[in-house]
Amino acid sequence: MKNIKEKGSQALKITATVFILAVICMSSAASAANLHVDPEAEEGYTTIQAAVDAANAGDTIFVSPGTYVENLKIDKQVRIWSDSRNPENTIVRPADPAESPVEITGERVTFSGFGVENSEKAGILLSGATSCFINNNRAQNSKYGILLQDAESNNINGNVITLNEAGLRLESSRSNTIQDNLIAYNYGPGISLEESSRNIFFNNYFKNTENIEENAANADNTWQSTLTVKRNLIRGPYIGGNFWADIEGTGYSETCEDKNSNGICDASYTLNGGGSDNSPLFPKVPSAVTALENKLDAEAYELGMETRGVEVNETENPAGEQTGENGPEGEENKTAETETSENGTPAPGIGFAIMAAGAAYFLKRRK
């Protein structure tokens, strides 16, 4: 009888615990709210920052298309999505160009679907941020497209990082995942690392005069994922390393051999300063490279280089294909958490004063 009572009491405790946990989960889900930003609407918020300030942890903020002149400070766990999921029509520009238009210092922040531009600092700055998801943004015309400072375990996924003095820079940042990005036509290095280790870079498209800034820290990071049967960003059959192109059309992925026709270069690619990509991507489907190029603005890059007194000898026809491709058969590049949307060719644009300031910085740095 005693054992029966003990078992009954134990079962009651377990049932009560499960019930309490269920109530907590339901209450948490119920308390999460959706906030809307639309300067033209009678209700809702007229600025993104006002919505962030009003949001509670776990809320989602939807932003209507438009140009928002703000210096966003995001210090709480929120999801911020553009309504259109199109970085071409939902733009964030800094009210103070000396600061980043988007600065994230919180945990588990999602920021997706925005054009971020015209900063003398970084388009998107993650400072002390952890476990954030930065997806499907276009970061351009800034000193750095995206800058991570003392940031850990973030996912930088499916972004276009272009026309910046440097594409992506990591400072004292660890265990971040950089995947599925177009990091191309930046005036300085595509990737710059300082005291940053255990980061992984894979399935990215690199096309810069200097794709990786020479640094011993390069060897402390991983430049490919485990070879996996899944379509990569240039429509090859495997997820592995990265696609290494350059402005002259003589990048490693553009000139390597793929004798077994598996979409992976037969030999590893050695990085400047140390480290290697053991599974560099080969353009097995050349039209996919053309489709990616159509998302970029080579003419704006050439114009920007001309303002620096640098002549550009770019190949006119990437991967030997005809231009005018509409994209990878209309299918989107899927990731573990979201999908990178296929956007049309962007309109050209350059912030000359910002780029000049960035150029002066790099010239001073290299002296």
Can you tell me about this structure?
With 367 residues, this protein is of the alpha/beta class. It has one domain (58-366). Helix content is 20%, strand content 27%. The protein is built from 6 helices and 29 strands. An 8-stranded parallel beta sheet has the order 1-2-5-8-11-14-17-20, covered by helices on one side. The chain has an 8-stranded parallel beta sheet with strand order 3-6-9-12-15-18-21-25. Strand 26 and strand 27 (276-277) form a beta hairpin. The longest helix has 30 residues, at 2-31.
Record the SSE blueprint.
Layout: H1 2-31, E1 34-37, H2 48-54, E2 60-63, E3 66-69, E4 72-74, E5 79-82, E6 90-93, E7 102-104, E8 110-112, E9 115-117, E10 122-127, E11 133-135, E12 138-140, E13 144-149, E14 155-157, E15 160-162, E16 166-171, E17 177-179, E18 182-184, E19 189-194, E20 200-202, E21 205-207, E22 210-212, E23 228-229, E24 238-239, E25 243-245, H3 252-255, E26 269-270, E27 276-277, H4 286-293, H5 298-307, E28 333-334, E29 339-340, H6 352-366
Parallel strand pairs: 1-2, 2-5, 3-6, 4-7, 5-8, 6-9, 7-10, 8-11, 9-12, 10-13, 11-14, 12-15, 13-16, 14-17, 15-18, 16-19, 17-20, 18-21, 19-22, 21-25
Antiparallel strand pairs: 23-24, 26-27, 28-29
